[in-house]
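[Discussion] Sanity-checking designs against the backbone

I'm trying to build intuition for which residues belong where. Below is a C-alpha cell string of 222 positions. I'd appreciate it if someone posts a full sequence so I can compare it with mine line by line.
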C-alpha cells in the first residue's frame, strides 16, 4: 500500500472527533508531501531542529506539533510557528514557552504530559505534579500559554490489558481535569495512541492520535 492509501484507511477507521497527527519524524520532505497533497495538514515531530527545518521548507498551512521531549533552550526556535506542544512536563518549561510566546506575540497551545507507563524512561508528570502546576500562581499569571489538554504514552508491551488500564487512567484524569475552572485552560484534547495501540486508545476516549510508522513505514535510525 502507498502512503496515500495507508493514510486514508486510518482516517476512515477513526471516529470523527479524533484528530490524526501524522508523525513524520526522520522522514524526508517528499514523503511528507505525499500526505500533504492528499489534504493532510497536521504533522508531528519530536526534535525541534528537524521540525524547524521542515517548517522552513514546506507549505505554511501545515500545523506542526511538537510531540517529543522539549529542552528549554530550544523553545525559542519554534515559538513563532508551533501549533501544539504535547510534552510539557514542568513549570520551568511552561514558563519558558510563555516567555517565548510573549516575544512573538502568540498564545502557544500546550498539553501536559502525564506519566502513565511503567517504564522509567518515559517522561511525564504525576497527576499530583500536574495539579500543582495548574494551581501555581505563576501558571495562572502566564498569558502566552494555553493548556488545552493532556498527553500520555502507554507502556510498550504485548499486554493489552495493561495498555488499556493506562489509557483508562489517563481518560479518568482528563475527565477530572475538565472540572477545573482556571485561566489559560480548557481540557478538550486527550492525546493518546500510536501505531501499535491507537485503536485501544480511541476505545478509551482519545481525541488525538499520533501515528507514524503505519503511515510512512518503519523509521531508520542511523
Ligand atoms: C514517534 C512517536 C509517535 C509515533 O510512533 P509510531 O509508533 O511510529 O506511530 C507517537 N508519539 C510520540 C511521542 C513519538 O515520539
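Best answer:
Here's mine. Compare freely.
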Amino acid at each position: 500500500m502507498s502512503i496515500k492509501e495507508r493514510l486514508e484507511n486510518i482516517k476512515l477507521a477513526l471516529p470523527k472527533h479524533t484528530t490524526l497527527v501524522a508523525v513524520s519524524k526522520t522522514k524526508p520532505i517528499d514523503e511528507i508531501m505525499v500526505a500533504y497533497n492528499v489534504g493532510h495538514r497536521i504533522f508531528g515531530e519530536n526534535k525541534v531542529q528537524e521540525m524547524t527545518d521542515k517548517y522552513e521548507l514546506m507549505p505554511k498551512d501545515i500545523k506542526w506539533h511538537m510531540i517529543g521531549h522539549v529542552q528549554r533552550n530550544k523553545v525559542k526556535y519554534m515559538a513563532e510557528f508551533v501549533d501544539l506542544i504535547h510534552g510539557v512536563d514542568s513549570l520551568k518549561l511552561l514558563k519558558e514557552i510563555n516567555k517565548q510566546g510573549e516575544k512573538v506575540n502568540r498564545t502557544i497551545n500546550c498539553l501536559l504530559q502525564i506519566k502513565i507507563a511503567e517504564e522509567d524512561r518515559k517522561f511525564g508528570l504525576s497527576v499530583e505534579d500536574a495539579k500543582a502546576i495548574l494551581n501555581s500562581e505563576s501558571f495562572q499569571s502566564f498569558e502566552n500559554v494555553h493548556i488545552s489538554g493532556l498527553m500520555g504514552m502507554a507502556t510498550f508491551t504485548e499486554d493489552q490489558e495493561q495498555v488499556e488500564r493506562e489509557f483508562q487512567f489517563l481518560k479518568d484524569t482528563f475527565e477530572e481535569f475538565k472540572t477545573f475552572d482556571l485561566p489559560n485552560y480548557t481540557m478538550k484534547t486527550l492525546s493518546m495512541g500510536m501505531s501499535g495501540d491507537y485503536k485501544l486508545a480511541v476505545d478509551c476516549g482519545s481525541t488525538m492520535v499520533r501515528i507514524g510508522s503505519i503511515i510512512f513505514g518503519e523509521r531508520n535510525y542511523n
